[in-house]
Amino acid sequence: MPLCKQTCLAALILLIASGCSNPLGGNHRSLEDIQESGKLVVLTRNAPTTYHFDAQGNPTGPEYDLVAGFAKRLGVEPQFIIKDSMTEILDAINNGEGDLAAAGITKTKVRGKQFLFGPTYQEVTQQVVCRRHNVQPDSLKELIEQKVNLVVVAGTSYEENLERLKSKHPGLNWEVTTDADTEEIFEQVWEKEIDCTVADSTIVKINRRYFPELTVQFDLTQPEPLAWVLPQSADDLREEIDNWLTEFSRSGDFDSVMAKYYKYIPKFDYVNIATFKRHIRKRYPNYKDLFEKASERFGLPHNLLAAQAYQESHWNPRAKSPTGVRGIMMLTLVTAKSLGVKNRMDAKASIMAGAQYLHELKQRFHKKIPEPDRTYLALAAYNVGRGHMHDAQKLARELGKDPYSWAELREVLPLLSQKKYYKKLKYGYARGREPVRYVQRIRDYANILAREIQ
Q1: Which of 97, 276, 353, 388 is the residue whose CA sits 20 to 30 A from 375?
Q2: What distance in Å separates the CA atoms of residue 229 and residue 89, rounded to the nearest whole number?
């Protein structure tokens, strides 16, 4: 069984079991114990900067990739236990529930007294994040003077740092929450439910891609180290991590992981109508016949297919992303292979395969779903994955909403990024607003295209 499939299955099993049992029996294991058992048990959290499931239902994320690399060196399988908060993760390390914690954890003096940290693998800066057209303090002084409604997650390094700053700035105030994670707080800032929050620069960078109205007002700290957390007695494991990370970095593999998640080219920059119309004149004629042929073969509106391709690549057949998607329809390698595509940069092959994949996704939704809802659900699945769409339909039923209605599902999908909902779902965290925007942008492009080519 492939590594990713084994790990995915193990992660699901452990996700279910983590709330009621301790796979290590409360013991801190030695490196030899880990290798003899054939598994490395890792505590993490479900988030885009750590560990989550991609559109194909496979585990992914910076911490997942790094842990997989280390586990490969040890000759063992990584198995992940998902915890809801940093407090739960650190408590679980103390209780012997995992061999290490890999969750974007900042090494602080307070934590250093209680835990053993692995080597630093990344540096982050805590940043004050607000929203355009709302409160925007440019300094700690203004943050205090403007009485900004600042909210952070309880038990994080953000809270620890604010406590330190308050000793020098007594007027500094903030609220803590245990009901939301950092990604969910970003959404609250975006909705103007709160003014500002504090987050690591890595988390900010990824999430601004989905909430571009968020603004970094100022840095609250100097760069701080991220490291894996180990039990205090795990010196042998710490030494092995140090040796592996040195080799992993020298080989260029570490830089590849960082580029994959942080040095991306954004897939969407707000709809620029002038640019789109220019591409309709200059690029669209090169692919018009291909979209029409794919439309006829798979029973899909050709304007919709063309709009989807523009959303994916701006009609660039050589488009590529560090996350592994390629071509005019931005196919993953796995999807391309399953559809017989040998060269994803081949515009004809990519368009036909993308249309076939969208058609197949439509067939996987219940036939009683009316059009155009069924097509919209398939488009959303193309973006976020069928697994997450299944979760959204399940949640819709629980909330008394129609799981076959796009109008109601687009209200449910954003809930997949809220911890109180996603922690109960099979595939966990998802950027639920993104497929909603994805479908809407495609509809907008399709309408504009229809008018322009009349």
Answers
A1: 276
A2: 9
Q: Which of the residues are catalytic?
A: 312
- Which two three-digit tokens encode residue 140? 């700690």
Examine domains 3-120+227-262 and 126-221 and report if their fold is the same.
Answer: yes
First to last CA, the chain: 52
What is the rounded CA–CA span in Å between residue 58 and residue 52?
8
Report whether CATH 3.40.190.10 matches the domain 126-221: yes
CATH of 273-452, one of 3.30.470.30, 1.10.530.10, 3.40.50.960, 3.40.50.1000: 1.10.530.10
To which residue do tokens 């399940």 refer?
394
**Cβ-Cβ contacts under 8 Å for 446 (sequence gap 6 or more):** 301, 303, 304, 306, 307
For residue 158, the model assigns a pLDDT of 95
Nearest 5°: phi and psi at 163? -60, -40
User: pTM above 0.85?
Assistant: no
Q: At what angle do helices 3-17 and 62-74 cross, to 10 degrees?
A: 110
pLDDT, mean of each 10-residue run, the chain (454 residues): 40 40 66 96 92 84 95 96 92 94 93 94 95 94 96 93 94 93 92 96 83 90 95 95 96 88 54 78 95 96 95 93 88 92 95 96 92 94 95 96 92 93 93 92 88 74
Dump pLDDT digits (tens) for 19-39: 444 555 556 899 999 999 999
| Topology given in CATH for the domain delimited by 3-120+227-262 | D-Maltodextrin-Binding Protein; domain 2 (3.40.190)
CA distance 370 to 389: 17
- Please give the pLDDT value at position 263: 67
Q: Which segments of 98-252 does DSSP mark as H helices, in order?
A: 109-112, 140-145, 157-166, 182-190, 201-207, 235-250
